Amino acid sequence: MIKRRITLKSCGIPKSIWARLFIFVALLEVFAIICIEGYVIKRTVDIYKNGTESQWGFGLQNDSNKMTITQESFIVYDVIFIVAQLFLVMLCWEAVAHKNTIQIIAATLFNVMCLVYSLIQYTTFYIRPSTSAGIFQKDNDMRILLITTMVVYSLCSVAFAMLSWELYQMFGWQTYKKLGANLSLRRAYKWHQILLTLLKLDIFFFISYSVQLATLVLRVSDPETWVQIGVVIPGSVVFLVLSFWALKVEKRRVMIVVIVCLGCSPAYFIYKLVRMNVGINKNDDPYLDTRKYLTFFIVVTLVLILVTVYVSIQCYRNFGIGLKEAIAGYDSRKAQLKANKALEDSSNPDHVPNSNNRYEYTDVNERFVLE
Question: Are the C-beta atoms of residues 174 and 369 closer than 8 Å to each other?
Fold first, then answer.
């Protein structure tokens, strides 16, 4: 059996210093944020450890028992930070491995949104503190941690922006050197890549919004809570996965259903936005500690959905022009190259591949590059 070393190239990372720096910054950021947010969670638990248990088993409740002030409100936000960083690493890795300039730009913008989210958190804690966040006012350690989080995101956002420009220049000419000289296929591929990236972002933001709504606003005794957890969240994931499939195989009827459903969903988010801010009883405000966070996620999700609908229509119009067949043709040629290399290695065990080997490939490679 031939043993292969696991290298950056075998994982799809190009030899370019800019590509590897892009991944390094993402990994450095995820390490820093996980360490910071992990300690923030510990501080939160320590502060709340003497409180009365909340509806979910931990946290504080006020005397009226109408409004729950819970530590999970803060822990959920910190967990979202951590999950967002893992999602960002996935975006960066996949974007660099596939030389996808659109997703590289999307990863940079996603990091900026994380910075905005950290600013909202700091505002909620120290500039305009909510009722429950007031307990952190005299905690200087927490203040330093939140400022450090914003600094990390700011520095990494600048680094991502600079590296994205270098990667765009490096990958840009390759991105459009595809599918021969057919301009219509190039345009179709551009919309295809944009929609794939948007669907990934849709999944993250909608699930994050739903988790916050179900765990922080809705009550355990409220049937809507379990509908949100048991039906809406998994159903949304299945729907968005179906969107990926419809795009890949160019199923017109399925894509029409996707476009119609996505087109109707803004009505729900507008309704929730109005409900959070209009006609709320100040003595029993379920959105007291979550309004800013949920508003941020609703606005971002709403914008993403509207853009996704527009891009989906563009992709639907491109069905049948030959993009699917071009993808299949590239995949078959890549499989043939892989088989040829495996045959060559088996016939010559001492053979060491080099950069001039015409059968050289990586398992994660740029799609559609016909060089």
Answer: yes
